[in-house]
Amino acid sequence: MSRVLVLNSGSSSVKYRLFDGAATVAKGLVERIGESGGEVADHRAALQGIMDEIDLEGLAAVGHRVVHGGAEFTGPTVIDDAVVARVEALVPLAPLHNPAALTGIEVARKLLPDVPQVAVFDTAFHATIPPEGVTWAIDKSLAERWQIRRYGFHGTSHAYVSRRTAQLLGRDPAETNVITLHLGNGASACAVEGGRSVATSMGMSPLPGLVMGTRSGDIDPTVIFHLHRVAGLPLDEIENSLTRHGGLQGMTGVNDLRSVLERRTAGDPDATLAFDVYCRRIREYVGAYLAVLGRVDAITFTAGVGENSPVVRAASLSGLDPLGISVDPERNERRDEVISPHGARIPVCVVPTDEELEIADQSRTALSLSR
Ligand code: AMP
């Protein structure tokens, strides 16, 4: 048995979970790091506090969640100075996300110099998407020079959930095709063919694809030129608008889907439209990925919205009965593991995601440790 500490360092927070085998023995969240009124001054103090609190006896590894691994990190990677330098070099691709992970790595390595540390990248699972699925039709020299391509995110979640779906259906993951719908505050869809990602909805950043809590998802890039040239908005303001004031937040003024659903029930037209846009986008991606995969063995909902909102699950897949896709109202309401009617051609599943457990397991794999 080996203990693994999983760290998810954000710009002002650190989430941690300590695993013994597959069991969680400690977990917590330090928030508002460095903010006035926050509990701790910086990441070092936050991690020191975590180390003091938990029992580090038998700790075999620390697994770090890193958002962007660029094109080069295609799996969990044991951290050394060279890896840190390579992750640093990727900061321009993920200026909002990678610096926090680097701080977490730097501090954890200093505090636990004898414990091997592993970086698990949100992008890595998507390294198997074929070139035609990650290349955009833009000037080749620009794309190459500036590393412009689709990378995709939420990889640990899509990997975990697609494998669990196959197991749930009593199938071999290597022979199972799944469309996974990770619908949380961030949201993305993924087409998984025999355990390998072959398409996903996020891009160079986590901005495109599905409608999210505060991110717009797909828009015509011309919107940006128009807001800049015609509306006179500076680029940072446009970026801020699309990433923090877009999505459900932008359309309704609230980012939490529960609030949108309450307003919709009360007859609010903005909330009604936002819900329809949200669900239609999911349906469009399901249709696209049916075509990418050809044969689909399951469609799986996960994350905050996917696991908890029967109305989103039902509306997203409505009208697809001719394709063998439907949702049984009672199973959906009860949140059974399989919510499609008995004998449906394509099972529809609800599988709770567990990114931290997947990070712990991938960290062990990278170090050839057993659970
Ligand atoms: P996550 O990022 O996976 O933690 O998902 C967070 C989001 O899940 C929240 O912003 C909510 O919009 C959504 N959520 C959580 N519980 C429910 C629920 N019971 N019904 C609808 N949405 C929910």
Could you walk me through the main structural features you see in this protein, from its secondary elements to its overall organization?
This protein has helices at residues 43-53, 81-89, 98-111, 131-134, 140-145, 155-168, 222-229, 235-244, 247-252, 257-265, 269-293, 303-308, 310-316, 329-334, 355-366, and strands at 3-9, 14-20, 23-30, 59-66, 77-78, 117-121, 177-183, 187-193, 196-200, 298-302, 348-350. It has 371 residues and is an alpha/beta fold. It has 2 domains: 3-121, Nucleotidyltransferase, domain 5 (2-Layer Sandwich), CATH 3.30.420.40; 171-350, 2-Layer Sandwich (Nucleotidyltransferase, domain 5). The strands form 2 sheets. A 6-stranded mixed beta sheet has the order 3-2-1-4-6-5, with helices on both faces. Strands 9-8-7-10-11 form a 5-stranded mixed beta sheet, sandwiched between helices. Strand 2 (14-20) and strand 3 (23-30) form a beta hairpin. The longest helix is centred in the last third of the chain and has 25 residues, at 269-293. It is globular. Adenosine monophosphate binds next to helix 10 and helix 12.
Features:
371 residues, alpha/beta, Nucleotidyltransferase, domain 5, 2 domains, six-stranded mixed β-sheet, binds adenosine monophosphate
